[in-house]
Every structure is written in C-alpha cells, then in structure tokens.
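Data card: per-record layout.
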Amino acid sequence: MANIACIFAHPDDEAFGPGGTIAVLAANHEVHLICVTDGDVANNGLKDIRSQELQASAAILGVTQVHHLGFIDGTLSNSLYHQLADELKTKLDDLRPEIIITFDDNGLSGHLDHIAITSVINWLFPKLSYLQKIMYYCQKADERKHIRDYFVFMPPAGIGLKSTRW
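The structure for this 166-residue chain is written out next.
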C-alpha cells in the first residue's frame, strides 16, 4: 500500500479533474490531500464554505486526511516560493509519501497559484528520497485549446519548456 500526497492550491482543485483518479487510488492506498491556500480570495467570506466543501469532497473521494497550509488564495507567486517550499517539505517529511499528484507545468489552466505549486514540487522532488513518482494532472491537447486567456499564455503542445518527468 503506497502513501500518496495530492497537492493542490485551492479547495476544489481536487474535484474538478483528478477526483476520479484520487478515488480509485484511495480505495487501496493511504491518500492525503494538501490544500495550500484557504480559498478566500480578497476576503470574500468563502473560506469556511470552501473548507466545508473540501472536507465533503475528501470524504466522497475516500481521502485519508486533509491538510491545510493556510496561504492566501492568489498570493503563491508573490515571492513566497521559499516559504511554500519549507512548509510543503515539513508536511511531506511528516507524511513521507511515495507518490505525489499535482498540476502539470502550466498549472493546468495557467493559474499562477497552480504553477507555483508545480514549480515548488518539481524543485523539492529530487531532494526528498522517499518520493518515487510525481503524477501530473493535465489535459489532452484538444481540450487545452479551449482555454483562452484564462490567466497566462500557455504555449501549444510541443512548444516551450517540458518536464523531464513525463
């Protein structure tokens, strides 16, 4: 039985795409969900609602435990990389997962919080000997073409930087 950590930026990131994979893996493995932000962008009062929804989603998916890091939604690309890396490393050292599930290099949608998570995970991966594999949540090229001007420019498939871990 593998220990798996799913690391996402916001409450709901686990549900809108990788939820099926998480549920399948949770049936036979210990799966932890690490939610990096509180989901309360601009103090809009959604923090408690999104937290409750995340707990309900995790229960449906069969997640062993939800962990919150408490960063503010929308701020992960604002010079917080070292703090984010330190807090994620501390949590991962405690959980000691063999597998991580997170966003692809474009943060799936180009969202800067998503990209920050992936960048930090890719930086941490070779430093944590217990990690054996990263599974990236991504979209097929024909689905990606429908995302236009969401957050940042996303190069078409085959152009730009590529991860060596695919």
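Known properties of this structure: Residues 3-144 form a domain with the Rossmann fold fold (CATH 3.40.50.10320). Confidence is low (pLDDT under 50) at residues 158-166.

See the next section for split statistics.
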